[in-house]
Amino acid sequence: MSRDHVQSTEPPVPGPTVPDRARPDDRSAYGSAEAPFLELLARGASAEAYEQPVLLARAEGLPAERIAALEQARRLALRVRSDLEGRRRREAELSALFETAHDLAGLRDLDAVLQAIVQRARSLLGTDVAYLSLNDPARGDTYMRVTEGSVAARFQQLRLGMGEGLGGLVAQTARPYVTDDYFRDDRFEHTLTIDTGVRDEGLVAILGVPLMLGHTVIGVLFAADRRARVFEREQVALVGSFAALAAAAIDTANLLAETRSALADLERANEIIQDRSGVIERASDVHDRLAELVLRGGGVHDVAAAVSQVLDGTVEFIEAAAAPAQALEASRAEGHAVRHGRDWIAAVAAGDELLGALVLRGHPGLDPVDQRTLERAAMVTSLLLLARRSAAEAEQRVRGELLDHLLDARDRDPRLLRERAARLHADLDATHAVLSARLEGAAADADEEADARRRLWAAASHLAATRHGLASARDGGTVLLLPLAPGDTATDLARRTARHLGTAVHEPVTVGASAPVEHLTARPDTVAAAYAEARRCLDALRVLGRSGDGAAAEDFGFLGLLLAGERDIAGFVDRTLGPVVVYDERRGTELLRTLDTYFACGMSPARTKDDLHVHVNTVAQRLERVGRLLGEDWQSPARALEIQLALRLYRFSAPADPSTPGRS
Fold this sequence. Notes:
single chain; alpha+beta; 6-stranded antiparallel sheet; 5-stranded mixed sheet; 23 helices; 15 strands; disordered N terminus; disordered C terminus
């Protein structure tokens, strides 16, 4: 307790026993005894300064009555000074409490309010440290929340169990506790952890006041000094007032948090309601769109585009083979869309048959209503595919029947055939090739073989529909009638068809093609003859070990003459010797004659030069030129045989003219 406080609590001293009016000369001689002390009060001097007037009077040897008057005036002045200081202190305390209450009224940041409370408590009490701890109901202890003036990190992180240390005792008993020497006080339980933290901070005197909400302790407000100190009752009450404000701030913050949480819950509920309303509207929208698509005959990609707009994502239809197998099977088995990574998979199925899948890309979070929308779109897609399949099968049957009529009917009406073909977008007056296709994979049993043939027929029918042609199942395979594009050859068409069908059925497919045919309705047997030629080419490919390939009669050299329905001798000669014939005709050379003589002489250059009556170097030069025109392999057995046959056919087909080079 300060000396000033001690003096302010002394009882009042009686005034002089001799009335002032009995000694009028004292005031006149020495002046008023209160004057110097009033001056000290006016300038707020320290308590020690009030001794000076008395000491000075004694030094001057003034009468005892004067000194006694000064003593009395000093005591009165000190009482007034103490009262003034007390009022100023209470005014400061009230001001601090008012400011804290004002902060509490405008609470925005709980930590800032608690920090201000701790700072003001420390400032008003003049302590080295002030801090506030809060109870943790989950762990059953109390922990440091705010500190002011603390320098030890371990102290700032202390957690006190109930009953441990002074703070734990306050939290447990809900009563304030004061100790002027913490380490010598045995009223509370000392623990190594707490004592170490207090020792690190250097605290000695500690005051702890509980923070109460009703009858519940939620924490403790502390004021502490690093020296021995006695906390007065007024100081305990002041800290208690700050503790009450701190508790109110925490309660207000909790209420605000609960209010904000409730508002947030209401906002979320409102958002959910609005979202549900939006989802229902989207579901209704997609229902209307899908219904419109079905009514106007839209396709699966139209369905995917419509659902993409409604779900605000990218939806696409993929074939069953391209979809993730496990997710696709799970969706088919459950009858619902399933999540696959960041995508959603909805199986497009008809019974146990998987037709494909609708995939919603990059949309991991999907509302149940939106999920149902995706599932309905998959169902509509399956219906469209089944309807398309039925229409395609009907169209395939019609295309097959028309091709069967072209192959078999002898008394057909060309006009009716053209009309039927036009309805199928086929032009029977264009140049076509007839192709015979057959699977090369070995089937395990009759059922598997029949299934493979159906798949081949389906793939061929689809190809015919897209190419404006016709297709039909026949003779254990498939026959196609496809138009030839300008500059295209029957061989090129056969090879493309073999690759396309093989890819579609995942098995090797061999395709034989006829020579180009025109005016299919003019002659009754045109298509049948072309089909017979295509079958012979198909058989030749299989005999030659070229299964899975495609070719026409023109692709087999002189063998093609035997395979072709109509012997194209001029075409064979032109394909075999054309470059040499053109060279002789343009330059007047005798390469054909030299080539014919060379083969007649057993491919001997020496005998050839004798028959031609030229130098052997001339023969070599001419043969070298032939090699450049026909290719380096022209003397191989197979090519040599074809060239000799072409030479003979050229001689026999050309009119005799001794003057023409090479036509002897």
